[in-house]
Amino acid sequence: MKSQSKSIWAGALISVTLLYLTGPTTNLWLLALIALAPLFWIAKQERARWKAAIYFAFFGYYFVSLQGLRYAHPLMVLPLIALAGYLAVYPLLFLAMIRQWLRIDRDTNSIARITRGIPFALVAAVIWVGGECLRNYFATGISVLMLGHSLAGMSHPTLIQIADCFGSYGVSFLIVVVNVAVADLAFARWSKRHTPEPADELTTSPLPTSEPSSRWKVACVGWQSSLPIAIVALVSAHVYGSGALQHETTDSDVTFLLVGRDEQTEYQQDQQRELDIFSAYARQSITAVRRSERPIDAVVWPESMLSGGQPWYIAEDDLVVPAEMRGGGYGEEMSAEQMRQIISQTRDDFTRRSVDLVSAMASGDPPRSPSIIGGCGVVRYGKTAKQFSGVIHIGPDGQVRNTYAKNHLVMFGEYIPLIKSIPVLKAYVPPGLGLDAGTGPAVFRVASLNVLPNLCIETAVERVSVNHMRAILQDDPDSLPDVIVTLTNDAWFDHSAVVAHHLRCAQMVSVGCRRPILSAANGGPTAWIDSSGRVVEKLSFDTAGEILAEPKLDDRVSTYVRYGATPVLPMAAAWLVGLAVVLNKLWRRRPFFRRDDR
């Protein structure tokens, strides 16, 4: 038993090590096709103490992979521990469900007779992908470190092209299927070489025996079925991907200047620091536009960099003066009309600054100014006051043409759930933690192109961009975006692997939406990604520089955009059924770690 326990720990550590090596630091993507194989070996071990090994191995994997989150704030180490602990639950439940399935498959009841014909490779893939689907929605959702992202670093990314049909889920499904075949081939043959052959009647018995080789053969359909499934899946993905990569795109006549810097930011930043950062970006943009041999249609600044301590204010028709602005330091009771005058003055100040900026960037003969797409705070006064992390589109004339309010906020970074509903606690919310979420997408018109803005973590939650594209396709197909522009401030993460994982998320979104992605980042992935997920050009994370991007236009409307995650939802439902079975078992056999899992 002690020897088996060591083997279980070794298998779990080998699995997470192989997964880590597929990451952006080493980019050994081929290891993804064997990384889960040790887990399937563990799943077949009878009377094994496996739970602690799996949980703590994957806790370490997620903690190390995402450890850059701790740089954002000294207290972020606590959410990092919580996040790693939460994500590690999914591999643990995956093994629990797999073992439960194998137990059913060895029985002789009616359920077993129905399920025995289902290839184990498909069962394993459904369970893994179902778990990924749930974690993309539960607790606001997160897509980073999905299994399919491990193939984003392929130099010739044929295997990830199926993401335009099924998103990253499809790539994860493919990887699991291949891993099952690898496990069946490797461990069944290893068992055969190291264990005496059982009697003939044992090899054909439908019941489990104590011999390891017999247990392996009985426990699943075996490599005779998993290998053909894996080969068909790999070949199909490769053929589909090769064809998708050959799709002809068209040149656009619109040029974007993606501006990236590495300005250090603080969680609570004073206004002077914000002005200094704004000035640094302004000087760099003016210089870059003037020296460019090509006319620039739009200059793109990262998240928050356009604010400069001066958000964009909007007054609604139903404006009500906030209670905290009535009397007090504002003198007598402020009327709604006075409030509108103040907002109008601040908008005029913002516009004058914008006019000066675009005028300073004018170049060519006759002089031509670009528009600006930049991250900027947006405050909207209606029946209640709401503040958003937003994107502003400023036209070549310096006038604000459109805004986008970030839909997907960072929990504990931009808001605390329910805290604004508790009057006693609401007053203690620090600046930056009281943001509101926007609703729905926006489309910016830049020259001849429609641009979909995304902000910050929204490309790391895959469904956000896809759902935006779907909503536009259903409401106004003529406004379907040609390009996705994403703005982020990843300086929080101090050039760690978190930044590179963010870029991988954007690569998968570009394939899923079949749209090029232009990313402008502060201390992060300033990059131009084509509609096949290939990085055309990128800046180093610690570099101040620019990318001139003329994105090639892709006329495809992907299946993923048309139907979203609909094909994956039955897998999520199957995962929930599996969870119910596991929890029912734990309820009957408590405590969780007291006895062996038989």
UniProtKB/TrEMBL annotation:
Pathway(s): Protein modification; lipoprotein biosynthesis (N-acyl transfer)
UniProt protein name: Apolipoprotein N-acyltransferase
Entries under Pfam families matching the protein: CN_hydrolase (PF00795), LNT_N (PF20154)
Similarity section: Belongs to the CN hydrolase family. Apolipoprotein N-acyltransferase subfamily.
Alphabetically ordered keywords of this record: Acyltransferase, Cell membrane, Membrane, Transferase, Transmembrane, Transmembrane helix
Gene3D superfamilies, per the entry: Carbon-nitrogen hydrolase
UniProt main location, coarse: membrane
PANTHER family associated with the record: APOLIPOPROTEIN N-ACYLTRANSFERASE (PTHR38686:SF1)
Transmembrane annotation, as ranges: 28-43, 52-69, 75-98, 110-131, 137-154, 166-188, 568-587
Membrane topology summary: Multi-pass membrane protein
Boundaries of every CN hydrolase domain copy: 263-553
Location in the cell: Cell membrane
EC numbers: 2.3.1.269
Purpose: Catalyzes the phospholipid dependent N-acylation of the N-terminal cysteine of apolipoprotein, the last step in lipoprotein maturation.
Uppermost EC category: transferase
